[in-house]
């Protein structure tokens, strides 16, 4: 005998909507008509009408029993668990257990009631009922939060089985509430400028919810027609939240996995409709989004630049997303990058073709760089969508840096505050390097130019801040790189370089603009401070370069290293560091030359080489003294 929850406390909840007046009010009331009120209309049920369900009095006891029996016995549609071939709810793909609301977890267990799951306890009906009643009480407020959206979808997926557990009045209240949420959410705006949680919730409730209801209750004509609203809402979401090539805005990076998860579930459900899930443009962007989501993944499967509690890929989530995208190159890249337990179940032959390893989009304010698709290959992710630039660096399957790359610049003791946001100055990617240069205006007419260069074959990362165009005075600049909790910086006792340590040394750090030996009295230091690697420099002048070289090849940490500041000459006259700077660095047998013009480019000489351009990075080939250029910026 089905248990019945006392719904007296919630029987009038949906009546709390404020009444509107005149034609707008009549339109709103018509739009939000309840399914329970429409159920007796002649065209409510699609053919064939469920057996023994009386359209004239669908809420009568006999009809209710027939309806609940029909829901229990029907062979189609399959549950989301069956569609995705998994035993854990796909509703929580991309989310850690701590991020999933407890009520949604309890409700979602309804999906598993009809399946044998060894080792898993059956949910207590009382707990499910309590969670569902709590959601029903909250539903008229329509909060645009991820928690509410997940609970709403959990109720929707659990509704067919709830017909056996609750009374008919309460069940109809639930589907009325779901109908109301789907109708109201259709008017919500999809926009990348919205707070990320609100934007993702909009796709869950204006896209996935109506599609889910149409899939689960094709017998009800008004519900089945919700697929059209879902198609429109989901197609619009791709246009508004992505850059046209499948990349989300930087503010949405923390929600990239949940967003991909909702679109993956929708694509699985949408396969059951002739019209499909979304338009052709959205289909193309979905494939590109999976590539970016894969590229923005660590070897452990966690998202780069994601929230701290973000969950790694699970095998079922990765399998569903990649098989829907149907790109063999992505599947090969996933196998090369991720642990085998995550890539279990991926179908398709290994191919030599893989996606591009690097990408940048100024609209999104996001860039990522990889030397290759491999677990141990270095990777860098940058979020410059806000002045608080986010940076994550991996090398040798370890996270080295993660968080905000912060800075402080002062001129004669006065802080130069940022006066805008980051602008892309240059993006370049080829077989040798990935290079991104950004700039942000500072007070007093100065500018901070930030350089990020990853050398693919040489396996080093150059991070540099250049203060340009300050009024003459003492320039002091400090930047701080947040080290991973398992990484420590160990400085050398006599020289200014140091090693990044985990269980063993994993990278070497060279402050190129500082004298190598600590006995040199010139000002500047590279130190560890409160979990950060901090570079400080100061000098009198108008410009200053602050470069930091991170050698990511672990085997070179045991080799000797050295570096020097080079003399730059123009027309046989030595130039000050206000004009241009040059550095030579050596780690083991590898040597590199770095030249940067801080004033207007001109024909200058450094280390026997003539340059009339702004920036050069090159291999230095000793003892011949020749160079092999890796990057030139005119």
Q: What's the short story on this structure?
A:
This protein is an alpha+beta fold and 634 residues long. The protein has 2 domains: 76-343, no CATH class; 359-558, Beta-galactosidase, Chain A, domain 5 (Distorted Sandwich), CATH 2.70.98.70.
Question: What features would you highlight for this structure?
Answer:
2 domains, alpha+beta, Beta-galactosidase, Chain A, domain 5, single chain, 634 residues, eight-stranded antiparallel sheet, elongated
Provide an overview of this structure:
- With 634 residues, the chain is of the alpha+beta class.
- It folds into two domains: 76-343, no CATH class; 359-558, Beta-galactosidase, Chain A, domain 5, CATH 2.70.98.
- It contains 16 helices and 27 strands.
- The strands form five sheets. The chain has an eight-stranded antiparallel beta sheet with strand order 8-9-10-11-18-15-14-13, with no helix packed on it.
- Helix 6 crosses helix 7 (146-165) and helix 12 (256-270) packs across helix 13.
- The radius of gyration is 30 Å and the shape is elongated.
- 46% of the residues are buried.
pLDDT averaged over residues = 89
Strand order of the biggest β-sheet: 8-9-10-11-18-15-14-13
Tell me the span between the first and last alpha carbons.
80 Å
Percent in helix: 25-40%
Unreliable segments of 5+ consecutive residues = 1-30, 114-118
Q: How many alpha or pi helices? A: 16
Major beta sheet summary: 8 strands, antiparallel
Task: Give the overall silhouette.
Answer: elongated
Rg estimate, integer Å = 30 Å
Number of domains: 2
How many strand units? 27
- Per DSSP, what share of the residues sits in E-state strands of 2 or more residues? 25-35%
Structural class: alpha+beta
């Amino acid at each position: 005998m089905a248990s019945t929850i006392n719904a007296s406390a919630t029987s009038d909840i949906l009546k709390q909507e404020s009444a509107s007046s005149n034609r707008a009010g009549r339109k709103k009331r018509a739009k939000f008509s309840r399914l329970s009120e429409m159920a007796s209309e002649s065209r409510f049920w699609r053919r064939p009408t469920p057996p023994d369900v009386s359209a004239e009095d669908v809420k009568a006891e006999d009809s209710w029993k027939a309806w609940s029996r029909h829901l229990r016995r029907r062979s189609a549609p399959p549950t989301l668990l069956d569609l995705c071939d998994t035993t854990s709810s796909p509703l929580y793909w991309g989310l850690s257990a701590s991020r999933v609301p407890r009520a949604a977890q309890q409700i979602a267990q309804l999906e598993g009631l009809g399946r044998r799951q060894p080792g898993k306890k059956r949910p207590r009906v009382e707990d499910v009922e309590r969670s569902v009643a709590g959601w029903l009480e909250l539903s008229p407020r329509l909060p645009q939060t991820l928690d509410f959206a997940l609970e709403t979808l959990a109720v929707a997926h659990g509704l067919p089985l709830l017909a056996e557990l609750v009374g008919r009045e309460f069940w109809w209240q639930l589907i009325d509430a779901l109908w109301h949420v789907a109708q109201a959410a259709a008017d919500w705006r999809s926009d990348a400028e919205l707070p990320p949680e609100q934007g993702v919730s909009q796709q869950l409730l204006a896209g996935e919810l109506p599609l889910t209801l149409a899939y689960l209750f094709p017998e009800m004509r008004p519900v089945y027609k919700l697929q059209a609203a879902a198609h429109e809402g989901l197609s619009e979401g791709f246009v508004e939240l992505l850059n046209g090539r499948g990349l989300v805005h930087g503010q949405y990076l923390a929600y990239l996995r949940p967003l991909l998860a909702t679109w993956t579930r929708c694509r699985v459900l949408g396969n059951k409709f002739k019209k499909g899930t979304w338009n052709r443009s959205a289909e193309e962007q979905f494939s590109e989004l999976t590539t970016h989501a894969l590229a923005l993944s660590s070897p452990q499967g966690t998202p780069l630049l994601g929230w701290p509690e973000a969950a790694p890929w699970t095998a079922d989530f990765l399998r569903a997303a990649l098989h829907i995208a149907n790109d063999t190159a992505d599947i090969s890249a996933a196998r090369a990058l991720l642990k085998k337990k995550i890539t279990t179940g991926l179908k398709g032959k290994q191919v030599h073709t893989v996606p591009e390893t690097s990408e940048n989009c100024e609209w999104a304010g996001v860039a990522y760089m990889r030397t290759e698709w491999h677990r141990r290959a270095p990777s860098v992710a940058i979020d410059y969508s806000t002045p608080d630039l986010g940076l994550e660096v991996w090398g040798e399957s370890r996270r080295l840096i993660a968080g905000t790359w912060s800075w402080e610049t002062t001129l004669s003791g006065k802080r130069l505050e940022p006066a805008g946001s980051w602008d892309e100055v240059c993006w370049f990617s080829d077989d040798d390097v990935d290079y991104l240069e950004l700039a942000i205006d500072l007070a007093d007419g100065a500018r901070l130019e930030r350089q990020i260069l990853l050398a693919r074959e040489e396996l080093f990362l150059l991070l540099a801040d250049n203060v340009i165009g300050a009024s003459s005075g003492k320039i002091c600049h400090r930047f701080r790189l947040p080290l991973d909790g398992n990484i420590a910086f160990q400085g050398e006792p006599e020289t200014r370089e140091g090693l990044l340590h985990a269980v063993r040394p994993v990278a070497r750090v060279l402050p190129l603009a500082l004298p190598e030996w600590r006995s040199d009295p010139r000002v500047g230091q590279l130190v560890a401070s409160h979990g950060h690697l901090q570079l400080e420099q100061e000098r009198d002048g108008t410009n200053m370069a602050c470069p930091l070289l991170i050698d990511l090849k672990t085997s070179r940490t045991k080799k000797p290293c050295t570096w020097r500041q080079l003399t730059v000459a123009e027309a046989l006259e030595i130039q000050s560091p206000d004009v241009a700077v040059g550095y030579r660095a050596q780690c083991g047998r590898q040597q590199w030359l770095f030249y940067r013009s801080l004033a207007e480019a001109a024909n200058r000489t450094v280390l026997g080489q003539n340059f009339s351009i702004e920036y050069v990075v090159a291999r230095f080939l000793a003892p011949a003294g020749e160079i092999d250029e890796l990057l030139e910026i005119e």
